[in-house]
Amino acid sequence: MTTVPGLPINFREGRTKMKKAKKHNKKHSKKGFSLIELLIVVAIILIIAAIAIPNLLRSRIAANEASAVGSLRTLNTAEVTFNTTYPSVGFACSLAVLGPPASGSSASSGAAGLIDSNLAGGVKSGYSFTLPASASCSPTSTGINTTFDVTANPVSAGVTGQRYFCTDPSGVIQYNGSAAITPASAGQCGAQTPI
Question: Where would you tag: which of 46, 101, 119, 163 has the fewest CB atoms within 10 A of its CB?
Fold first, then answer.
């Protein structure tokens, strides 16, 4: 034991107490992120999301439009097949006629089974498909439908799609970028832009 005049000090004991105090401080020191660091990380994530979300929406719109064009091609093929299979009827006047027959029934001119039930229902991938009644069917005096029109309009313009599509017996798929296509007469989509 070393002493200083007037004060007894044990250097060895003092060092041990200091080491214990340092260990004690290390045990209780909190590790983690400060509030500022967490706010910076959240801000970076929000900036990345702000950049990515519009691109995601544009990609979804492009995918919906591609699906609509593919569905119109399917409908064109189905109409030609229907006309060939049921020449006494001609082209189909509704999507339901091209759709699947009831369970256990065979295909007929009332339900040909040429398209899936989603497309026969009229809505698929953000687009609404219709055969406008006034322009779709133009039966001859013998009752044979000689033409058809199919339109595809976005369910919510600007959200599910940007362009409006139409097709007729020519097989050409046309579009309008600003307004729904209303066929002027049966079998003619009108003067639209071909794809």
Answer: 46
169/126 Cα distance (integer angstroms): 24
Residue 187 lies in a domain: yes
- Give residue-wise pLDDT tens across range 153-168: 999 998 999 999 999 8
pLDDT digits (tens, 9 = 90+) for 5-47: 665 555 555 555 555 555 555 555 667 889 999 999 999 999 9
Tokens linked to 53: 């979300």
d(CA 60, CA 162): 11
How many domains does the chain contain in total?
1
Compute the distance between CA of residue 172 and CA of residue 100 in angstroms, rounded to an integer. 25
CA distances from 20 to 25, 28, 30, 31 (A): 9, 13, 18, 20
Six-digit token string for 168 = 């007729």
